Amino acid sequence: MLLAKTLRSSTFRLALIAIGIFGLIVSVIFAYVYWSTLSYVRDRSDRAIMTEQASLDDAYARSGRDGLTALIAQRIADKAFADHVYLLAGPGSAVFAGNLKQWPAEAAGQGWTEFRVSLPQLATGTSLARVVTETLSNGDRLLVGRDISDLDGFMAQIRAAGIAVVVLIIVLAAAASIGVTRRTVGRIESINATSRAIMLSGLDQRIPLLGSHDEWDRVAENLNLMLDRIQTLMGDVKQVSENIAHDLRTPLTRMRGRLEKAYHAPRNAEGDAALIGDTIADLDAVLGMFASITRISEIETRARKGAFRTVNLVEIAGEVVELYDAAAEEVTTHLDLAGDPAVMVTGDRDLLFDAIANLVDNAIKHGRPGGRVTVTCDDDEGGPVISVADDGPGIPADQHDRVFKRFYRLEQSRYTPGNGLGLSLVAAVASLHGAKIELRDSAPGLLCRLIFPAAEA
């Protein structure tokens, strides 16, 4: 099964193409080396033959046919010239000197040629001779050459070795490509199997890691992280759906009860007006909830970066403090602004105002009556920071990450006004601006910090 998928895979086809190209390149390189070596060795042999031919021509020029015959006989008797071929023949093919019995048919013309010949001074049987022929001034024909059997054998060994190397390389490359392709297909099949299991049973499955820390393990890790993220988002969607249903049930039930009661009761202008007013208030709360959800979604999709400008956090925080000063006085909470006189960031002024306002509103609502809420703007080494601190009961450490989820509310906050979307909006604004949110216990109370990225130099 795996072998069939391996042979059908595109990776294997690409590997075969790569092997073919590699084999072609190796073959071309080998052919170049072979012909270069052959040309070099042949050239040296030809130069030696031409040098010997020149010596014989000199002897003929000095002493005629007799001197040339004597020199050829001397060469044949010398063991140093045992691999040489000589033949001096007349116009009628009569042999005057040499170690060939007759003029070879392959050397009918003039110039270079090769042929098989049996030399009496060599006990190697038939040899391959390379010779050059010429016609002398008196009509005689002179043949001079060498036995190149060793050269031919050497080149045959090079050919055999080259072919063996090319075949070995191709076989090894094919085996390696099959192994790599099987491994690749195996990892892909593991991912496919996990994907099918997820489609059948849910998001609990994860792609197994081999512990090799290679690119496939990194892909599997990233896919597992993506699945973790999807599972978290699906859980958030489920929680949001349940919270929306829970938060809408109360106002909708209340509105239906009022309308049903009014439907069965006699008309009363004053009572009807009160009923309409209460119903409108409940509808406004529901519409406000959906408006908040829509605004958070818009911020999370980063659709509002076009309004980014350089703004002063201190000015924005001052406007928020001024806006909530009256609300703080109602619960005898002291609200003040501290820190640097100017802290500049790049961002959307309206969104930053909403985020700071939500933090201050939460601090006043959930802080200690008669306590203190302090808004501080600083410019430290990590970047611009705005913090909101209260001296109320705070938030348990294990709840710090959960309070930024939509509609999430602490148990002690269930009966206070709100819909659990304020801190979700703060988180969305912080993410849009690249800011980090920190929640700290300020013993007593809670300290919430928004740390913005430092301005580039």
UniProtKB/TrEMBL annotation:
It is an enzyme of class 2 (transferase). GO terms for cellular component: plasma membrane. The keyword Transport does not apply. PROSITE patterns: HAMP, HIS_KIN. Gene3D superfamilies: 1.10.287.130, Histidine kinase-like ATPase, C-terminal domain (3.30.565.10). It catalyses: ATP + protein L-histidine = ADP + protein N-phospho-L-histidine. One of its GO terms (molecular function) is phosphorelay sensor kinase activity. Residues 182-235 form the HAMP domain. It comes from the Bacteria. Keywords: Kinase, Membrane, Phosphoprotein, Transferase, Transmembrane, Transmembrane helix, Two-component regulatory system. SUPFAM superfamilies: ATPase domain of HSP90 chaperone/DNA topoisomerase II/histidine kinase, Homodimeric domain of signal transducing histidine kinase. The chain crosses the membrane at residues 12-35, 160-180. This is histidine kinase.
